[in-house]
Amino acid sequence: MALKINFNPEAAVTHTALLQNERAMNKSLLRISTGNRILSAADDAAGLFIADQLSVVAAALQQGNRNIQTGISALQIAETNVGQIFDKLKTIYTKAQSAANDINDPNARAAIQRDIANLVDAIQKLGTDTEYNGIRLLDGTFSDKVIHYGARANQTITVGISSVKANDLGAFMVTGAYTTNSVTAVASATTVDNGYSTTSGAVASNTNFRWDTGDQAVVSGINVGTGLSFAVDAKTIANNINSSTTLQNAGISARAVNTSTARTEWQDIQTASNQTVSIQFFVGSDTTGGITINVSGGGVLTLSDLVTQINTQASSKNINITAKAENNKLVLTTQGETIGLQVSVTSSSAAANSISVDMARFLGLSSTAQNVSATSTTANSATATGSAIQVGKLVIMGTDQYNYNFSGISSTTVGLGINPATGNAGFKNLYSLDVTTNENAELALDIVKTALQKTDKIRTQIGSVINNLQAIWDGQKASFDNTKEAENVIRNTDFAEEMSTFTTMQIRMQAGMAMLAQANALPQLVLQLLR
């Protein structure tokens, strides 16, 4: 073998291996001490890129969840105060209901009105002053607000809260009025053309108060005239509105009422022999005059008898009308159905002379000259017929703006008492509440009921957004955890594996040191040759 002393290749190779082992052992030591598998880009260039991108996404998800928590905090403040407004509206509703009771005297109603005014003022303050970090939440300016929840651009949810201030809460309303009309005919055997049929019945003209071809009853694009026949009937229209799913979803509802108080006090109807009086009441779409009361020759009809007969026949025939006597006047009430009246009087001989019945003692007619008279001057009989009608009051209310079309049946001369015939519903806010009369208190109930619906709708929408954000938060928290785990797999040290590597490198270092010592000893063999 060749022995040299100027260069020891064995020692050099062993030293190189020792340096490599030392570098590997030091790197393993650093990985164990830092917990990072990738200490520089040189360790794993592709892995570093992927891990860094995952780190950015994880940080963005975490910030997105902070944004969500901020949004939820603001919405919770808003939802709590909307709940306070709802409670105050509920109190207003019960106070208006109390004021609608005619047992209250004017002083009591005035006290209730003051209480309502204070509650309305509190609602206005809540709507105006509720804020989060200086941002108004309930005054209508919190609209189209963006909450950025995601890790990427345009991962947002848009939030808006409608105003719940007192001047913005209320109802979009279309309100009709009680409408009456009547005609009389004195010619023998003459009947009055009417809206129930063209030959008999109880409506006062051949065109007005009738549902004819071309007449319109449309609310927010929905035909609510279905089922109308002959007479205009507010109750039928109200029922159609309330049974429409589309209108219900739009927050539109309606009610109809019809109460008629006779214009004149009651005077007993007395007939001589050979004189008769026939009184028929039509309710809603009835064309037969379901309630008929006859006063035969020599008979007497008192107010008490009339009330009893009306209520008895209405009960037995399931007709929605009730009668009562109040201040010596006849008061008729339906559930909103039209009330029709036909009075026929007959004088069958000159001996009976004349007979006259004032229809104003049955209905609250607009004129007092409503006598139905029959006079016989010869042996021939004379017959006269009079007709009258009162259409109920239709009240339509909605949480949002809507349009309507009641062409042909709108005005007080043709039916519903709505003017103009077409247009958009008018808005009545909480400041318009007036409970000083029964009629106004009933209207206040409509306004507050609709305001309650709108407030509850806003509150539930806020709750839905909170639930949506919370669901997004939960999903993103899971995504954050999984993203950090994916980054951990690439970036962080597997201690079990790395300890095994470190131990291997440590043993190799020890073995390398021993072998380097042996390699350094080899040139000493040259000394033996020199002895």
User: What class, by secondary structure content?
Assistant: alpha+beta
Distance N to C terminus? 18 Å
Number of strands: 25
What is the helix content?
A: 40-55%
Largest sheet: 6 strands, antiparallel
Q: Spatial order of the strands in the main sheet?
A: 16-17-11-22-5-25
Mean pLDDT: 85
Indicate the overall shape: rod-shaped
Beta content comes to 15-25%
Q: In DSSP terms, counting alpha (H) and pi (I) runs of 4 or more, how many helices?
A: 9
Q: Which spans of ≥5 residues are poorly predicted at pLDDT below 50?
A: 185-204
Based on CA atoms alone, the radius of gyration comes out at 46 Å
Draw up the topology in text.
Blueprint: H1 9-34, H2 45-99, H3 106-129, E1 131-132, E2 135-136, E3 145-148, E4 156-159, E5 170-175, E6 179-185, E7 210-211, E8 218-219, E9 222-223, E10 230-231, H4 234-242, H5 245-249, E11 252-261, E12 269-270, E13 275-283, E14 291-295, E15 300-301, H6 303-316, E16 321-326, E17 329-334, E18 339-347, E19 354-358, E20 371-375, E21 382-391, E22 393-398, E23 403-405, E24 422-424, E25 426-429, H7 438-491, H8 495-521, H9 525-530
Antiparallel strand pairs: 1-2, 3-4, 5-22, 5-25, 6-21, 7-10, 8-9, 8-23, 11-17, 11-22, 12-15, 13-14, 13-18, 16-17, 18-21, 19-20, 23-24
